[in-house]
Design goal:
38% of the residues lie in helices and 0% in strands. By secondary structure, it is mostly helical.
């Protein structure tokens, strides 16, 4: 930020507010996200966006899943190659 922009802070703020008022419509609304706490701001924005989607319940037909094969004698969970990533969560 340069010194001139600091001096004209309130001029820029007024212009910004006029721009929001002039361009805010019901078809294309502006949403302001208070972002003093970035994590909460992002979570609030995600929640707002998800809440704005008109969800409909969808009836689905689940596929018929056949029974699995019996584990053969001597089979292990170890793939034998590579290094497993440790579970953290």
């Amino acid at each position: 930020m340069d010194t001139e922009s600091v001096r004209r802070w309130w001029d820029y703020t007024a212009a910004y507010q006029r721009m929001l008022e002039a361009t805010h419509t019901s078809q294309a609304p502006w949403y302001i996200v208070p972002a003093d706490d970035k994590r909460r701001a992002r979570l609030n924005l995600i929640r707002h966006l998800l809440d704005s989607i008109p969800y409909k319940k969808v009836d689905i037909e689940l596929p018929k899943i056949p029974k699995t094969q019996r584990r053969p004698d001597g089979a292990t969970d170890n793939l034998g190659a590579g290094q497993p990533i440790p579970s953290q969560y």
